[in-house]
Structures are given as structure tokens and as C-alpha cells.
Amino acid sequence: MAYVIELGYALSNRFPDPPQTDYRGASVRSLRYDLFCGDVYLDLDGEELSTRWGWVPVLDFAWALCDIVEQLDADPQGSRAAAVQTADLDFTQNTELLRFARRFGWVEISATWRRDAEPLVVRHAELRREARDFLQDVLADLTDLHDGLADNPAIWTVQGRFPRV
Questions:
Q1: What is the mean pLDDT of residues 8-29?
Q2: 6, 36, 38, 89: which could form a disulfide with 43 (CB 3.0–4.6 Å)?
Q3: Mean pLDDT of 61-79
Q4: What are phi and psi of 85, to 5 degrees?
Q5: Do 119 and 108 meet the contact criterion of CB atoms below 8 Å apart?
């Protein structure tokens, strides 16, 4: 049985962005990999997958998750597809992965750092909606916190590519 998935994050105090950062002109690489570090979590009816490392690039996680949800929908048969569609979200500072496997309309999410835990199971449509909401919420929070970020063309691009569903 699947329940509603909740995605969340916390920015790290240990890895603050450099104070001289020009958010308006920051490159996509900087936005995705060098800034906004913290932790992320996925919660499904009390079962949680969280990082607790402090250095996960939060914007990149949200962006990559939206990309992965779309990759999982590559089969033209969509929710009728019997073939398993898979994708991994890797964490660049270690060897850990979040693994996604879609069959029919369901997605199993497992973490390599929790090998003995049962995977979280959620409907693909629900994961798409939550991933996009999460990305848009992260972008709204970050643009409120950082002057000039809302004027960065890369932010406009990702906002337009993954609107709320």
C-alpha cells in the first residue's frame, strides 16, 4: 500500500555559501553543486530516508529528482508498462545512491546507505507532483533568502521546466 510522500530539507550551518556570492550571475554548476548545502529527506507514512550528512546540494537534489521522475516516465506505455524503468540519484561526495524503480504506476525508492530497509513505494504521479512542489518550494525559499537569485536565468529555466502539477 502506498501513502503520500513528503519531501523536505534543511540548510546546513556548517557549509554556508560564500558571503561574496553573486547569485544573479551564478553558473548552473555553482547553483547545482556548490551552493545551498544541507540535508534532504523523503518520508512515506513515517518511514524516512534522510541524508544527515550536512553537505548535500539541496537545489541539485530537487532538480535531479524532477529529472529522474521524468526519466522513469520514458516508456510510451506509461503506467501500463510492465518493463521496469530505473534511475539512480548519486551523491557526489560519497558512493551512496537513491535508487528508483518504476513498474506500472508504482515507484520503489531505496537508499544504498539503508541496505536492510524496505523500499518506499509511491505512485509515480504522486512522486511527480511532490518532486515538482518540492523544487518550487526550495526555489521560493532560496530566492527569499538570497538577493539576486530570482533574477538568475538558470532559475527561470528550471522553474519553467518543472512547474507545479
A1: 93
A2: 6
A3: 90
A4: -100, 130
A5: yes
CATH architecture of 5-161: 2-Layer Sandwich (3.30)
* Cα(100)–Cα(66) distance, integer angstroms: 12
Rounded distance, CA 43 to CA 139, Å? 20
Helix (H, G, I), strand (E, B) or coil at 50: strand
Answer whether residue 56 shows pLDDT above 90: yes
Query: What's this model's pTM, rounded to 2 decimal places?
Result: 0.93
* Cβ(104)–Cβ(121) below 8 Å: no
Three cell numbers written together for 93 = 561526495
Separation between Cα atoms, residue 11 and residue 8, nearest integer Å: 10
Residue with cell 550551518: 13
Confidence of residue 3 (pLDDT cuts 50, 70, 90): low
Reference 73, options 122, 97, 107; nearest CA is 107
Which grid cell is 46?
A: 513515517
3-state secondary structure (DSSP) of residue 58: helix
Given 3-state DSSP classes, what are the helix, strand and coil percentages for the chain, each rounded to the nearest 5?
Answer: 35, 25, 35
